[in-house]
Amino acid sequence: MTKVLLGLTLIGIVLLVILSIIRPQGTNANSRLRSNANTSSKPSSPRLRTIRWVCIGAITGLVAGFGITWLLDHYLVFGVMLGMDVIIAAAWSVMLVGAAIALSIITHSWRKVLAIVTTVLAVCSTATQINEVYGEYPTLGSVVDITSFEPLDLSRIGKATQSAQQWREHPTQAPKQGMVGSVNIPATASGFKARTAVVYVPPAGLVPQPVRLPVLIMMAGQPGSPDRAFLAGQLPQIANQYAQQHHGLAPVIVAPDQLGSALHNTLCVNSTKYGNVETYITKDVTDWIVNHLPVSKEPQHWAIAGFSQGATCAVQFGLRYPERYGHIIASSSELGPHNGNETRMIRDFFNGNAAAYRAHVPLDILHEHIHDQVFAHSTLIMGAGTLDSKSISNAKTITQAARLAGMDATTIIVPNTGHDWHTVQATLRTALPTVCAQMGLDFPIPTLKDTAATTGVRVVEQK
């Protein structure tokens, strides 16, 4: 789609420029006679006028596109780095928008219509090029927050009756692919107004005697949705690939809604501003999974993951509830809850209680447990792209603190990606083989370095 829109935009601009040079508008026999009769005025050539306007529009767009996105990136206006790929894509695309707008101003008649259409194509091309960098909206439905999945058929899922080891010893016929579906998880304890969740059940969970499987809770960023986690994160593809290599075994994956709306940054805390999000995820969602899906209840068989704001939530929940979630996978996480000015955030989300805020900050939680063994059996894997230096710094800082608190913590760096879903995909492909083995799906347990050698990411050595 991006290449098509870009191609049509370029064709429209080139066609309009060529037409303006071959048959410039506003020139006829009478105007040429007037021009010859009064050569002293030396009117501007329509051809030169067209070229001049196109150049002005293109240069203005280039400078504006590059300058604005660079400033947004440099000053972290959105709380994250945009990355040079986004800056270049924006500069190039807005340059085309500028040229198209200039042509729409100076042309007339049907050419103006063509110029306006070209301008619209240029704007759409800009959006798709930036989206291609982030991988944020894989379908048109995801743009308008329409779910892409049919309701989950719970009638196909029975209670777990065997362990993963029993299944490996005596595997039976299972579907080739897992099942994906949407489901409304009731907010029984929290009352939080959540959107529809998305669930993946692997082949080994769809047999007559389902396997007792581990769980991966995955949260998208903000703005975002559960659909985004599955589509942009390529969760079904990653899980099915793992299942095909392990006799149908893979984690049950649940993408719940921790936002309530794409526009809400809830900080994943209980607040009067957006509702009891923390209770919803850690109580309502967790209990629903245990009661409706063939899963283990043991914390060492539960992992919680996320991207961006969802990654920050995953780290918070994993550290605040180690008795529920034994593994954390975080891609492009922040250092802690972040929603504008800290003073205002504490006022709006924590009723002015600074201590309550600090109780949700990962570094404070880890420091509190630096001398005990609370996290002795917990795993933390932090992922970040090479083009996202802020997230790399965050990952290294949290990982270092986690190791001091006795946690098995590692940072992995994904080459040539930024604060985007490509980083998430690479992080999951690298982390899942190790985490799944730790959750009982494979033996011996592969190291992150073993998997990184095949996925192309770099494991950071930290003491």
Major beta-sheet overview: 9 strands, mixed
Task: Give me the side-by-side strand order of the main sheet.
Answer: 1-2-4-3-7-8-9-10-11
Number of strands: 11
Mean pLDDT, rounded to whole units? 86
Return the string of H and E elements.
Answer: HHHHHHHEEEHHEEEHEHEHHHEHEHHE
Q: What is the CA-based Rg, rounded?
A: 27 Å
Give the name of the CATH superfamily of the largest domain.
Alpha/Beta hydrolase fold, catalytic domain
Overall tally of structural domains: 2
CATH-scheme architecture of the largest domain:
3-Layer(aba) Sandwich
Spans of 5+ residues with little confidence (pLDDT < 50)? 27-41
- Name the CATH class of the largest domain: Alpha Beta
Keywords: Membrane, Transmembrane, Transmembrane helix
Protein name: Esterase
InterPro entries: AB_hydrolase_fold, Esterase-like, Mycobacterial_A85_antigen
GO molecular function: acyltransferase activity, transferring groups other than amino-acyl groups
3D architecture notes:
This protein is α/β, with parallel strands linked by helices. It folds into two domains: 2-134, no CATH class; 142-459, Rossmann fold. The chain is built from 17 helices and eleven strands. The protein has helices spanning 2-22, 29-37, 46-74, 84-106, 109-134, 140-143, 164-169, 226-231, 235-244, 277-292, 309-320, 342-349, 354-358, 362-368, 389-404, 421-438, 448-455; strands at 179-183, 197-201, 215-219, 252-255, 270-271, 275-276, 302-307, 327-331, 379-385, 408-414, 458-459. The strands form two sheets. A nine-stranded mixed beta sheet has the order 1-2-4-3-7-8-9-10-11, sandwiched between helices. The chain has a two-stranded antiparallel sheet with strand order 5-6. Strand 9, helix 15 and strand 10 form a beta-alpha-beta unit. The longest helix has 29 residues, at 46-74. It is globular and about 80 Å long. The relative contact order is 0.09.
